[in-house]
Amino acid sequence: MEETHVGISVEVNGRPHRSTVEPRTLLVDYLRDDLGLTGTHIGCDTGQCGACTVIVDGQSVKSCMVLAVQADGAHVRTVEGLAQDGRYHAVQQGFWEKHGLQCGFCTPGFMMQSVQILEDNPDPSDQEIRDALEGNLCRCTGYQNIVEAVKAAGATIRSGAETMALGTGVGA
Amino acid sequence: MHPAPFAYKAAHSVEEALELLRSHEDAKILAGGQSLIPALKLRLTQPAMLIDISKISSLRGIRRENGKLIIGSGTTHREIEKSSLVAEASPLLASLAPQIGDVQVRHRGTFGGSLAHADPAGDWPAAALAVDAELVIAGAHGTRTVHASDFFTGMLSTVINADELLTEIRVPGEGTPGIYLKHRNAASGYATVGVAVTATHNHGRIGTVSIAVTGATPVAFRASAAEHALTGHAVSAHLLDEAASHAADGLECLSDIHAPAAYRAQLVKVMVRRALGKLLHA
């Protein structure tokens, strides 16, 4: 009889984790339920909406369509890992400045895909941004401000400017 | 949604994957998982075991050998999309890759996985048929090579046996002009109808032309009547109209909630005409 649980080692946002999981565990459930990283959202659960987008070994994926066992040995980045050294990521700041969200449910996935876009090319055209966001759905605010947010984040990254300190601007 | 329980093993070589296939009944190969995992979650399939081949490095990569482009079955759509070698050697493949799913799906989904899955609405089967790809299949007694025209046997089925594994795909690499055009299902991005066309032409006359269509029927097919109507003729809008009008001759198209059969047949003609026009500038 095959083993019903498998040991995996995954580095998430720079922290190593050793876990034992059922092979059928989806990466998104592992992140949320086993590691408590609930910033990654489950939207459609069918691979359409992109709310569960995380970055595995430098490549954005829909974590509802990846098994946790497939991430064994991988480096995973989630929305919780975006802010660094007490400062927001340029993408977080861009979404805040350009109002790239309304209800916010899809936002973690949009931000992770935006990080991927800008890591591939820090100066994408509007069309390139729209093409690369094709796998993420927003059902309230539409996409115009999201595209603006990605462009603003790209400008911040290219300029090397310091981003806002955590807590700044929130509720202001 | 959660898949039913299954056992899992990651194979680290083709030999190990084949050995696992032989020693486990009801095992399925897991490559990128972008079709399989959704199917597992819906419990459309409930294999006893998954054999993960995504960690087999020899299945991954793109190279050119003796004028052919050799693509490992585990190569992702995204790797094909970004490959300058593919852009130069096979414009058709380069045109198709960025039209699959979305970036996240293309990061995981594989060339070989798509072909072996043989989804009637998959994109790669059309390209494989249009360029008459050779598919290399490994089994207990070595490898065999199958032409794309013999590879697909029906909806979601191919000639790959339960104890075999698709390892690489060879396509012509001399840069023949080609293009893929599809009418996307707005929700899923799958092809309601997708058309892959390659053509050579000299001084305004069409040399060899191939037209393959996916999405319309249970298995992708070559539109031979339309190809015949074009070969050797001078390019003109009228010629392309005439050829495209035969693209759906004798077809028994699929019918579902997205598109009834008559609509798919009409789309075949329209998409073939558009693809020819784009490629041949007429």
Structural class of chain A: alpha+beta
Q: Give the C-alpha Rg of chain A.
A: 16 Å
Question: How is the largest sheet of chain B built, in terms of strand order?
Answer: 4-5-10-6-7
The number of E-state strands of chain B comes to: 14
How much helical structure, as a percent, in the residues of chain B?
25-40%
Helix count of chain B equals 12
Strand order within the widest beta sheet of chain A: 2-1-5-3-4
- The total number of structural domains of chain B is 3
- Coarse structural class of chain B: alpha+beta
**Shape, principal axes of CA atoms of chain A:** globular
Question: Main beta sheet of chain B, described?
Answer: 5 strands, antiparallel
Question: SSE order of chain B, as H and E?
Answer: EHEHEEEHHHHHHEEHEEEEEEEHHH
Give the secondary structure arrangement, pairings included.
The complex is a heterodimer of chains A (172) and B (282).
Chain A: E1 6-12, E2 15-21, H1 27-34, E3 53-56, E4 59-62, E5 75-77, H2 90-97, H3 107-120, H4 126-132, H5 144-159
Parallel strand pairs in A: 1-5
Antiparallel strand pairs in A: 1-2, 3-4, 3-5
Chain B: E1 7-10, H1 14-23, E2 27-30, H2 36-41, E3 49-52, E4 62-65, E5 68-72, H3 77-82, H4 84-89, H5 91-96, H6 103-108, H7 111-117, H8 124-130, E6 134-139, E7 142-147, H9 148-151, E8 152-154, E9 157-158, E10 165-172, E11 178-184, E12 191-202, E13 205-214, E14 221-222, H10 224-230, H11 237-245, H12 261-280
Parallel strand pairs in B: 1-3, 2-3
Antiparallel strand pairs in B: 4-5, 5-10, 6-7, 6-10, 8-9, 11-12, 12-13, 13-14
Helix pairs in contact in B: 10-11, 11-12
